[in-house]
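[step 3/7] inverse_fold.run input=structure_tokens len=174
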């Protein structure tokens, strides 16, 4: 039995779950939108480069290509960082948080759900931070969400914990 926050193996919970959440950063531009944007940028920069070339300012043509390359690299870095995500799973025996960074490295923590407390800190600048607190230690979760989404997730997690704690314990499962 896990009584406090501990680092665990990255395996996901297989028990019946009261909550199974996947938290991912928001990316407003889809892959198709990215392709369309890059095509438009290439056409505009190529046309501008040709105009400058014909006027005798041929070095500008290279800078137009460099412009497109830098936009492409910036979006690729943005999509790479979007691979980061968190999973939060709640079963009768464990609340597990699994964080995967943009490089695929996994870190996981487990809490005994009867001891964990959900703490949403609201700052004067309207930013928020969500923590799972147990035995004097805290783990920040849902960092990739916006303030409103984070507050909604905190409410959902609190409700799932209350529901799990108040549900009659099934002795026959032992």
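[step 3/7] decode complete -> sequence:
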């Amino acid at each position: 039995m896990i009584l406090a926050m501990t680092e665990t193996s990255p395996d996901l919970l297989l028990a019946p779950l009261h909550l199974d959440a996947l938290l991912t950063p928001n990316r407003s531009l889809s892959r198709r939108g990215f392709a369309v944007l890059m095509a438009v940028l290439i056409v505009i920069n190529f046309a501008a480069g040709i105009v400058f070339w014909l006027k005798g300012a041929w070095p500008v043509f290279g800078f137009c290509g460099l412009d497109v390359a830098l936009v492409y690299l910036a979006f690729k870095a943005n999509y790479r960082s979007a691979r980061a995500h968190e999973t939060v799973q709640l079963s009768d025996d464990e609340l597990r948080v699994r964080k995967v960074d943009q490089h695929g490295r996994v870190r996981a923590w487990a809490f005994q759900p009867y001891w964990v407390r959900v703490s949403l800190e609201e700052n004067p600048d309207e930013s928020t931070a969500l923590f799972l607190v147990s035995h004097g230690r805290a783990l920040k979760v849902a960092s990739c969400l916006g303030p409103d989404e984070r507050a909604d997730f905190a409410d959902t997690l609190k409700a799932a914990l209350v529901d799990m704690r108040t549900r009659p314990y099934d002795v026959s499962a032992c």
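[step 4/7] annotate
Confidence is low (pLDDT under 50) at residues 1-10.
The longest strand covers residues 128-134.
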